[in-house]
UniProtKB/TrEMBL annotation, chain A:
This is Putative spermidine/putrescine transport system ATP-binding protein. Keywords: ATP-binding, Nucleotide-binding, Transport. It is found in: Cell inner membrane. It comes from the Bacteria. It is a peripheral membrane protein. Gene3D superfamilies: 2.40.50.100, P-loop containing nucleotide triphosphate hydrolases. GO terms for cellular component: ATP-binding cassette (ABC) transporter complex. Its main location: membrane. It comes from Hoeflea marina.
UniProtKB/TrEMBL annotation, chain B:
Belongs to the binding-protein-dependent transport system permease family. CysTW subfamily. CDD domains: TM_PBP2 (cd06261). One of its GO terms (biological process) is transmembrane transport. PANTHER family: PUTRESCINE TRANSPORT SYSTEM PERMEASE PROTEIN POTI (PTHR43848:SF2). The chain crosses the membrane at residues 26-52, 93-111, 123-150, 156-180, 201-224, 258-283. It comes from the Bacteria. InterPro entries: Bact_Polyamine_Transport (IPR051789), MetI-like (IPR000515), MetI-like_sf (IPR035906). SUPFAM superfamilies: MetI-like (SSF161098). GO terms for cellular component: plasma membrane. The keyword Cell membrane applies. The keyword Cell membrane applies. It comes from Hoeflea marina. This is Putative spermidine/putrescine transport system permease protein. Residues 89-276 form the ABC transmembrane type-1 domain.
């Protein structure tokens, strides 16, 4: 058992339970030491299976899992120096908070004196001092989560694996505990891998967001990149905050190209160096909802360097700091603009109004 | 933090006090009388037996009482007229304890095994149920005959033990199924994750969590064995267990020592039940005490 670093590499990892369908299908992923990584995807996308394979509770059908440079497939969780926090927390109901936290040290045969010192320090760290002798059933959800975290962290693992750690909490507590998780990760300075199906949770916490679908990785990148520059339509729609438009490329001329869809006339799109665009090719683009400006038709017209599609308002939702305006436009299910609250009430739109949805051409993002 | 909780308990208690007996629906009285009749029918005859067992030397089998003494209890132990009661009693105790231990251990292991599907699990399950519904007397005769055919002496610690297990094991396992539903797989996985070996997981996590259920299985096993008659009748061999002894006494003993035996065996039953329930309560008190320490 070396004291290797907590960087993780998955190489060609696949997992099949029945030999024909794959829950996890050929994953390659590198997670740097000390990173906060979120595995994000809908239920059944294989994210929990990946977590359990890293934890050593399941073995991959094929592929290698390296932690700190050594292949850990077949090793016990203790030998991997990973620790897992379960979705249900799995606190032992018959043991007090103190005994739950001390469990890992007890099964290792650590003497009671040394054990107590370490446990006291950990209880202090997670601020559970006054609850040390309570049973888990006598704690609130947030306190239970802290106990689960302390119990996992007491072994000084190099990787902490969290399976939907916030899903059992109510909305208010979830946001509070989210900040606490982030603080714990900085304190401990170890790699955290956090599985979630909530986009906002992943974006708020992670240094690295891994978006998954059907056992495969769609995009693995820092949170701002996943949000602002999603790789494909799936990522854009799953992360949210984007309008996706599909169309066929018309003319291509040096710096701009045009894109025409079935339900909207040609709009201008930027040309990026990394992509070759050809006339007649199908393309998806994403435009951020907060990049869209709504103008009334027949006014000043579309400003220079911008492009627009026309539509009508089908819904208005007040959100406080902004107003969510839903449009019927571009042939998409939902075309949404987030209009800053003050701007919206300068000229409030109502349902049925015709509008031009305008955005700067360079703000559109081409999807794969 | 504790203030709002105690305030809430306060109001519930007040509400309980304010509630008058006239608030009760008529069904309460119907059901209460039914329950009272049930209790009288259940305990009335038994209580008569207990009272009559304390008669003096010249006492008979019916009321009125003739004097008060412990004469018939003494008679029971001295086995002058009654046969080998204390021998039957200790055999029944040894047998019940063996049945209890085997039932608890095997039911626990079977409960663990049945959490996952395995080859032939349905067949095993139905075989188990079959031995539960098979008429006890027939099953006992079968086992007795089987031993005879094989040329093995039947005795209370071999054939009768087996016959009783055919009754207590399916019961114990069915209770265990209900108990096992409390067991969350995450607990075992968490224990493994924290470095516990398989044995440590069972001793430190699974057994303590299941302890109340295992006590219930033990209680079941003990009481089922202690007063088992049908399956034991043809399998106990030359020496009687207590129920067989009582039965033979009803055939040829016509003195209150029969009643004294009834009193003694009832007291033993109550002690066993008291010890079992007491240990469950003690387990709960221990956690409650922990809560009080925490406050």
């Amino acid at each position: 058992m070396s004291t290797g670093k907590g960087d993780i590499e998955l190489a060609g990892v696949a997992k099949s339970y029945d030999g024909s369908t794959y829950a996890v299908d050929g994953i390659n992923l590198k997670i740097p030491d000390g990173a906060y990584c979120c595995l994000l995807g809908p239920s059944g996308c294989g994210k929990s299976t990946i977590l359990r394979m890293i934890a050593g509770h399941e073995d991959p059908t094929v592929g290698e899992i390296l932690i700190g440079g050594e292949d850990v497939v077949g090793l016990d969780p203790v030998e991997r120096r990973t620790a897992m926090m379960f979705q249900s927390y799995a606190l032992f109901p018959h043991l007090s908070v103190r005994d739950n936290i001390a469990f890992a040290l007890r099964v290792r045969g650590m003497a009671k004196g040394a054990r107590d010192d370490k446990v006291d320090a950990m209880i202090e760290k997670v601020q559970l001092g006054e609850f040390a002798n309570r049973l888990p059933a006598q704690l609130s959800g947030g306190q239970q989560q802290r106990v689960a975290l302390a119990r996992a962290a007491i072994t000084e693992p190099r990787v902490l694996l969290l399976d939907e750690p916030l899903s059992a909490l109510d909305e208010h507590l979830r946001i509070k505990m989210r900040a606490e998780l982030s603080r714990m990760q900085r304190d401990l300075g170890i790699t955290f891998i956090h599985v979630t199906h909530t986009q906002m949770e992943a974006i708020a916490l992670a240094d690295m967001v891994v978006v998954m679908d059907k056992g495969q990785i769609r995009q693995a990148a820092p949170a701002p990149e996943v949000y602002a520059r999603p790789r494909d339509r799936y990522v854009a729609e799953f992360i949210g905050g984007q309008n996706v438009l599909s169309g066929t490329i018309g003319q291509v001329n040096g710096v701009r190209a045009t894109l025409a869809g079935a339900r909207f006339s040609a709009i201008n799109i930027p040309i990026v160096q990394s992509r070759r665009l050809e006339s007649g090719q199908m393309l998806d683009i994403a435009v951020r909802r907060d990049d869209i400006d709504l103008l009334r038709p027949g006014g000043a017209g579309v400003p220079e360097g911008s492009t627009a599609i026309e539509g009508s308002v089908i819904g208005v939702e007040y959100q406080g700091n902004f107003v969510k305006v839903m449009l019927e436009a571009g042939g998409e299910d939902e075309f949404v603009a987030y209009v800053p609250e003050r701007r919206f009430f300068e000229d409030a739109l109502s349902i049925g109004d015709r509008v031009l949805a305008v955005w700067q051409i360079d703000h559109a993002h081409l999807l794969a | 933090m504790t203030a709002p909780i105690s305030a809430r308990t306060g109001t519930t208690m007040m509400r309980r006090k304010v509630r008058k007996s006239s608030d009760r629906p008529w069904t309460f009285y119907v059901l209460a009388s039914f329950f009272a009749l049930y209790v009288i029918a259940l305990y009335g005859p038994m209580i008569s037996i207990y009272i009559l067992s304390f008669q003096d030397v010249q006492g008979g089998l019916v009321f009125p009482m003739r004097g008060v003494s412990l004469y018939w209890f003494n008679e029971l132990i001295m086995q002058t007229r009654a046969g080998d009661v204390s021998g039957a009693f200790s055999r029944s105790m040894y047998l019940a304890v063996s049945v209890t231990v085997i039932t608890v251990v095997v039911s626990f292991m079977a409960g663990m095994a049945f959490r996952r599907r395995f080859r032939g699990d349905t067949i095993v399950f139905y075989l188990m149920i079959a031995s539960l519904v098979a008429p006890g007397l027939v099953l006992g005769i079968g086992i007795g005959l089987g031993f005879n055919m094989l040329g093995i002496e039947t005795s209370w610690y071999t054939s009768a033990l087996g016959a009783q297990l055919s009754w207590t094991l399916p019961f114990g396992i069915l209770v265990m199924f209900a108990v096992m539903s409390r067991l969350n797989n995450d607990w075992e996985e968490a224990a493994r994750d924290l470095g516990a070996s398989r044995a440590q997981t069972i001793i430190l996590v699974i057994l303590p969590i299941l302890a109340p259920g295992l006590i219930a299985v033990a209680l079941f096993g003990f009481t089922l064995s202690y007063d088992e008659f049908a399956r034991t009748l043809q399998t106990a061999g030359p020496l009687n267990t207590l129920p067989l002894e009582i039965w033979s006494m009803t055939l040829n003993v016509t003195s209150p020592s029969l009643y004294a035996l009834g009193t003694v065996s009832t007291v033993v039953s109550f002690i066993i039940i008291g010890v079992s329930l007491g240990s469950i309560v003690m387990l709960q008190r221990r956690s409650a005490a922990r809560l009080n320490n925490a406050k």
